Amino acid sequence: MGNPPLSVSLVSLDKAEYALGDEIIYILRVENTREYPTRVPTRVSLAEIEPEDASLSYRYEPMEIWLHLKDHEKHTLNTLLIVLYGSVEKPSTQLELQPKEWIEIRGKASLQPTAEKGRVVYSGYGTHSDMPPPVKKMSELEVSVSVWKGDVVDFDATTRQENYPCTVYEMGSTIYGSKLSLLPAAKR
C-alpha cells in the first residue's frame, strides 16, 4: 500500500463553489507510476461484468475513486466519485496501462457524504464524514482524491452471495491541494 501502481489526480472541477447535494463535474487522471504494466477496470456498471447466463458464477474487481474535502479545522467530507468494474474473465473490461501511461476519467457525482448516498462500497474506505452541513460559507476547502483497488469479489450464482478472498490492496492519494468553497444549501 505504500507504493501503489496507480496515481490518481484531480485535473479539474466545474466550479469553485458548491453546496452539499450539488452535482459536481470532474476530470481525473489515473496514471501507472510503476515500472511494469498494470490493469485498470473500465466499466461503470457491474451488469457489464455479469455473464449472460445468470446460473454462472463470476469474479470481478472494483476500483473506487474518492474525493476528500478538508477545512482549516480538520473537518472532512469524503465522497465516492465513481466505482469502475473489471474482470480478468472479460479482458475487454480492463485496460492495460504501460509505465507512465495514463487515462482521463470525466464524470458527474453528487457532493454529499457517501454514507448518505446509499451506495454499496466495497472497501468501506472513507464512508464517513466529520463535516456537518455548513451553516455558513466555508471557503478555501482543500481538495484531494484517492484510489482504492485490490478487492476481488467472487459472486456465487448458486447462493447469490459475494465472497471477498484475501488480497493485497492498493491505495494511493494526492496531497490536499486544490481549493473550493462549500456554500450553505439554503442560500442557493
Folded structure, characterized:
Helix content is 0%, strand content 48%. With 188 residues, the chain is mostly beta strands. The chain has one domain. Strands 2, 5, 6, 9, 10, 11, 12 and 13 form an eight-stranded mixed β-sheet that branches. The chain has a three-stranded antiparallel β-sheet with strand order 1-3-8, with no helix packed on it. Strands 4-7 form a two-stranded antiparallel ribbon.
What is the mean predicted local confidence, pLDDT? 83
- Please give the domain count: 1
| Unreliable stretches | 118-127
Principal-axis shape equals globular
Total DSSP helices: 0
Helix content: under 10%
Question: What kind of sheet is the major sheet?
Answer: 8 strands, mixed
Radius of gyration: 18 Å
SSE order, as H and E?
A: EEEEEEEEEEEEE
Number of DSSP E strands: 13
Kindly report how far apart the N and C termini lie. Answer: 41 Å
Q: Which class of secondary structure composition applies to the elements?
A: mainly beta
Give a short overview.
The chain has strands at 6-13, 17-19, 23-32, 38-41, 58-70, 76-86, 94-97, 102-110, 138-149, 153-156, 161-163, 170-173, 179-183. The chain has 188 residues and is mostly beta strands.
